[in-house]
Amino acid sequence: MNIDVKEMLEGKVNITSFRYVETLETMEGLMFDDLPEVEGKLKRIERRKLLLACKVKTRVLLECSRCLDVYPQELEFSYEEVYTEEPLRIIGKLTEEDFKYTIENNMVDVSKSVRENIIMNLPIKPLCREDCKGLCPVCGKNLNREKCNCNLEDITIEY
């Protein structure tokens, strides 16, 4: 979602609130059971800087790292980002200033930060459930759904 912030940058408005549901197009590369619901505020913190405070609620479809089944993972989180018209200056040592989002043509693209923060909040090792039994290393059956008669004692792992 693009938000026009011209009046904020001119000092006419200090805070803008918004609420919307993201689209699949803006969330490229992610799959959802429920599209992200976004609620937030943009607040003018300096002459040409804005603070975005967002709450996101969604259900992302992930692949279990043990059994490979796709399952819905609920995510609910808040975050803040700084937007500025100044270009990023990534020269030498990185500072907090290097991690701002830019305001382009008096517009703030909230969807970009929502997508990036969803990705950062995904589990490193997705599991459909804590006690997921995974796949049989011999026959490949999903051990959550069916038993197999494979002899796992004969398996040797070489490194």
Description:
This protein is mainly beta and 159 residues long. It has two domains: 2-128; 134-159, no CATH class. Helices cover 9% and strands 38% of the residues. The protein contains two helices and seven strands, in the order βαββββββα. The strands form two sheets. The chain has a five-stranded mixed β-sheet, with helices on one face. It has a two-stranded antiparallel sheet with strand order 1-7. The longest helix has 11 residues, at 110-120. It starts with a strand and ends in a 39-residue tail after the last helix. The mean pLDDT is 88.
Provide the fold topology.
Layout (H helix, E strand, L loop, with lengths): L1 E3 L1 H4 L5 E7 L10 E15 L2 E15 L6 E15 L16 E2 L4 E3 H11 L39
Parallel strand pairs: 5-6
Antiparallel strand pairs: 1-7, 2-3, 3-4, 4-5
Give the tags.
7 strands; 2 domains; single chain; mainly beta; 159 residues; 5-stranded mixed sheet; two-stranded antiparallel ribbon
Output the helix-strand order: EHEEEEEEH
Helical residue percent?
under 10%
Give the count of structural domains: 2
Our measurement of the CA-to-CA distance between the termini, rounded to an integer number of angstroms, reads 48 Å
Structural class: mainly beta
Q: Largest sheet, described in full?
A: 5 strands, mixed
